[in-house]
Amino acid sequence: MSAALLYALAGAALFAIGLAGLLLQPHLLRKILAFNILGSGVFLILVGLGQRDGTIDPVPQAMVLTGIVVAIAATALALALARQLLDLTGQMRLPEDRPDAEPADD
Amino acid sequence: MTDFLDPLPWLIMLPLAWGTLAFVLGPGRGGRLAVAAIALQGALALQLAGQLIDSGARVYAVGGWGAPLGIDLMADGLAAVMLLLTQAVALPLAVYARGYFAASPKGRELFWPFTGFLLAALNALFLSADLFNIYVTLELLGLAAVGLVAIAGGRQPVTAAMRYLFATLLGSGAWLLGVALIYGTYGSVSLAVLTPLIHAGAPLAVTLAAALMLAGLLLKTALFPFHFWLPPAHGGAPAPVSALLSALVIKATFYLALRLWLELFAPLTTVAAAQLLGVLGAAAILWGSVLALTQSRLKMLVAYSTVAQVGYLFLLFPLATLVPPGTADSALAGGVMQAVAHGLAKAAMFAATGSMIVATGRDDISRLGGVGARLPLTLFSFGLAGVTLMGLPPSGGFSAKWLLLGSALESGQWWWVVVMIVGGLLTAAYVFKVLRRAFLPRAAGDRVARVPRTLEFSAFALALASILLGLFGAPLLELLAVGREA
Predict the structure, then answer these.
(1) Domains (ranges, CATH) in chain A?
(2) What is the domain partition of chain B in residue ranges?
(3) Is the pLDDT at B144 greater than 60, yes or no?
(4) Cβ-nearest to B180 among A46, A97, A99
């Protein structure tokens, strides 16, 4: 098994773990962590498959750096929203959707 | 010097600049600046459209670097149509938002910076020439849109924003995984380099990448059954935000799906996959319309109407896949016309809805009595937008559906015709549900206040544009053809 394939398979496994966490975990922090695991899986695939004949290709590395910046921004926004939700509802999970049950306040 | 005045980079730089400036100016400020800057962006988009019609599609190397080291921007007819739509919707909405937030200040603090970033992301997305740049613009768009949903605060909007954020992040995650597989296979992310490389016998990884990227886009476009996040997000935000999201943001991901399907992955497309997209579109039309009919809140009704109208966009895929070229062209024209018509009409509808909510002080269809007498222009705008959504002549929605019907009959796929007609009837039902209530006299104890003139006129301008599109849509179709001769 080549190194590239090993990286790619590990990345795919991380992606699957992250996906399952994002969909199945009710706790918001766990969901946010799961999203980061999913992202890391993609980065691993990007860097792993980006090697050509043993030499390192710099382009995917640059892409992953950009991707990390994006992931940090997304995580920060998610954490800010989660905190706001905790202040508003007192719990760290998504409440059930009941748009009709709430008084229209706008 | 001519390079410095090129409209391509300025379409991205301008909204980024005024968005940042609005943030620095402080909470709620920057509205006048935004209106002026969006007008300028509109002029740039028109200039670009003129250049494309004169001299064809073109590429701009940012900073003079060029791919593969730097970033290329690319403009063709399809991109120019979407750019024109974006500025044409944003300008009246910016005028509307100034009046709206003066009357209903909840959420005004951060509206202008987020809107600037949103428009910059949209313009950059339409001009992107490589898959990774598209990933970055998709994320910028998603984060700005989520921020806009959350600006009003409160339990329901923040919950909707959180759910929307997870949906949009999952969508871009799937997209990036697809990009990684493509890069691993071909060693490039440039659309121009990849398009000739991908052929029918491409490796499994490429098919998998295509499926992942398309699935990510469907989630972000809220195509049935991925629509769960859309109604609370679009229905809970302040009216100018709902209008921006429903008119433009979901169109951006539809635009990408269209580009992938017709260009990059065209050799991999199959009739079965196209029919599946059509079936999901048909389900969206029926399910979204039926749910719109059952809503008691006005804004939720309009939001479910968006779920339904997204369905029409996806009818284009079965009508443009493996059919004679003439049929495919009219299907593409119809689908893009539907995107433009829905963009204008839905912006008008959300704007009119916002005015009605400001006037009555509540978001409740059963309490709309008296609106017809007090806000005739707003109700007329709602009605005109409804005419476009139903697809009645002479609106832009009629042209769109006429082109789609034509290619459905030409290619012998009559079942889509049935869906379109039933969808039109259901649309009429939910539009008239609102109009009927609004024409009733005011109930005792309800109040219907006047709203600022700018609210009424900006909604009317959008609604009128969606109708005029049907009469003067031909130049748009001419522009759409630029760069598609091959």
Answers:
(1) 3-89 (1.10.287.3510)
(2) 285-486
(3) yes
(4) A46
